[in-house]
Amino acid sequence: MTTVANSVGQKKGFGATLWDWLTTVDHKKIGILYLIGGGFFFVLGGIEAMLIRLQLLIPNNDFVSAGFFNELITMHGTTMIFLAAMPLLFGFMNAIVPLQIGARDVAFPFINSLGFWMFFFGGLFLNLSWFLDAAPDAGWTSYASLSIASTGHGIDFYAIGLQIAGAGTLMAGINFLVTIINMRAPGMTYMRMPLFTWTTFVASALILFAFPPLTIGIFFLTFDRMFGGNFFDHTAGGNTIIWEHIFWIFGHPEVYILILPAFGIFSEIFSVFARKRLFGYSAMVFATVLIGFLGFMVWAHHMFTVGLGPTANAIFAVATMAIAVPTGVKIFNWLLTIWGGSIKITTPMLYALGFIPSFVMGGVTGVQQGAAPLDYQLHDSYFIVAHFHYVIVGGVVLAILAATHYWWPKMFGTMLSEKLGKITFWFFFIGFHMTFFLQHFLGLMGMPRRVWTYMDGQGWNLFNMISTIGAILMAIGVIVLIINIIMTTAKNVRVGNDPWEDGRTLEWAIPSPPPFYNFAQTPLVRGLDTYWIEKQEGHNGYTAAEPVTDIHMPNGSIIPFFMTLGLFIAGFGAMYRVDHSWGLAVLIFGLAFTFLMMALRSIKDDLGYYVTKDQIRRTERGRD
Amino acid sequence: MAHDIEIIEKTPAEYSYKKRRSDRLMRSQLMMFALMIFMTLISFAAVQAGFSAYFVVPVVLLLAAVQVGLQLYYFMHMSEKGHGLVAFFMYGGMLIAFLTVLAFVTIIWW
Ligand code: HEM
Ligand SMILES: [Cu+2]
């Protein structure tokens, strides 16, 4: 049996290390895998963004062709939302949430690994389109008439790639829900959960309800394109508007799936570095849940100009503006958390402070767009581009960067350089506002969104040029971050349990990085900010809820990897079936392979293994 | 391998309490099962009898809804302790789905 060999930090060969990562079901390692995968796609999406901005640097530019430009914007948006922002957030959720609630792993470690591999292979599938055919070119929203008319296999890559990645996301969401409901340590009541755990919980609930519509929409699209369906073809009795509804019924909750965890990250950072309890904790929780609910009732604000009629537009406009209320509650609570705190301006705190004005600007433009009559002016202009980049970059990406600095020591046991961190922040922050602030005005001046180039003499040249320069500054910021990561890893200066010295939540009560079983003894939670309470009472560490006992741990498994590989192969079959006879065989083979792996998993009992008391004692002693 | 897994023995009182309880549950489940079969029969009969569709369709839908409820509460134990969150999620999901459909049939399509 594979037992505790992997518990002791022996040096392993490359093959063994690779095998370990391919088969891991440890939430901390899967968190790191998500960061690596998401980070890779973030860089890829960033390169696409730079190419877009270089094309728009000057009027009448032909740096890239018009068709290639469409592929660039489509892949940029799709990559950033599905393959970068969400997986990076999942990385932190995986690594941190079980620690915050005092658990030894997530509820379904096997499914956790399956979710990761589905995301990764889905993303790979999507991006192979660059090499195998044409990339998708109908925008990340892939509106049906356009996407069905698109020639080549581009949109097929979009549909199948997202189907695979989306299924992985759904699994991850369900896993977090079950974990947070069932795996909390004794005393960790719902109203003692840290805000990052709460927002993960609500975001996972949104995934549970929002991803099935996406799955269905993409299935329809797949059938229309590859299997002769007519769901969206109005000449054959279909309805092209239905896609827009389905997409946005998923799409608006999706933006809250992204921003809620970001809110959680900043809530943690504010209270740690203001060294104060989060102001209005229960109001924060309530606002999070309320945003989650309202997020489902506003989708048609993306469709004001479709012609739903004044009644629908008016009602959806009011519903949209209602969301600004709980969001405002959160902003004020953060401000009141900082107020009167003993503030330490660390890199994460810098990001948090930069987030507030940036996100408020994005929220304000959101409310403006929510006013249906005004949206007739703003829709499909650069104003929209400015809005969603203010919320996504000014909110989600700043949160991801902040979390990288904040939780890096917990995940890797080393501290990123604060000096380089602050340099990254300033490059990124200034670059961000330079890039997107002026785009509001470009929109108001009439520059439409998703245009390949523009003509001279419309007064757009200067703002576009400044915008591109800002993008370069952001890229420099990211490069400095990468240098920071490489240098920190090379230096390898190890840190203790609570390197920020002001940690409040349970993850800071255990070593950095934590041993593979996380908590030698299940902790007893005695209130909100568990670790802070312990420190106030002069304890070093946490109060245990049980004596040291043997710990039951799951075994690693390669099956998730192979299950996903089967789907990946089936995807190619489905796509090439249209023009090659071998496609069908490949499709069937891939699906059969996946089912075989599922059967293997069901038939073979895998009861995990035990870490004995002695081993735990030895590991714990070895640390101090 | 011996692991210290606690084995909790039931006291005789506990044992007989558990037994009585499961007997009671069994009885109610059987009753509900009979009731559900009966309702299914009514549905079939209503269709067979050739009543107006405006009568049959709502009746069948209503009976279906009742059966879903019985299924959840009597066979899937939703009334028992510790199912509050499950209920919250289910009703929350139904509420969202209902509002979505309502929006379509009232303000969007007509
Ligand atoms: C106060 C809260 C918000 C309001 C009132 C709001 C409102 C809107 C409206 C009305 C639109 C449609 C504009 C149009 O296409 O004509 C829009 C677009 C968009 N919003 Fe927001 N929004 C808010 C927050 C957010 C957040 C938090 C995110 C993401 C983290 C986000 C991401 C987006 C995206 C991606 C689009 C563009 C979608 C597309 O057409 O490609 N919004 N927003
Ligand atoms: Cu929206």
What do these coordinates show?
Chain A is mainly α and 624 residues long. Chain A has one domain: Cytochrome c oxidase-like, subunit I domain (Cytochrome C Oxidase, Chain A, Up-down Bundle). Chain A contains 19 helices and two strands. Chain A has helices spanning 14-23, 27-55, 66-100, 109-132, 144-149, 154-182, 195-226, 240-273, 281-294, 310-338, 347-370, 372-378, 382-412, 418-444, 461-491, 530-536, 559-576, 582-603, 613-623, and strands at 551-553, 609-611. In chain A, strands 1-2 form a two-stranded antiparallel ribbon. The longest helix of chain A has 35 residues, at 66-100. The two termini of chain A are 30 Å apart. Chain B has 110 residues and is mainly α. Chain B folds into two domains: 16-78; 80-110. Chain B has three helices and no strands. In chain B, helix 1 (12-48) packs antiparallel against helix 2. The longest helix of chain B is centred in the N-terminal third of the chain and has 37 residues, at 12-48. Chain B starts with 11 loop residues before the first helix and ends with a helix. At the A-B interface, helix 7 and helix 10 of A face helix 3 of B. The site of protoporphyrin IX containing FE has 25 residues of chain A, from helix 8, helix 10, helix 11, helix 12 and helix 13.
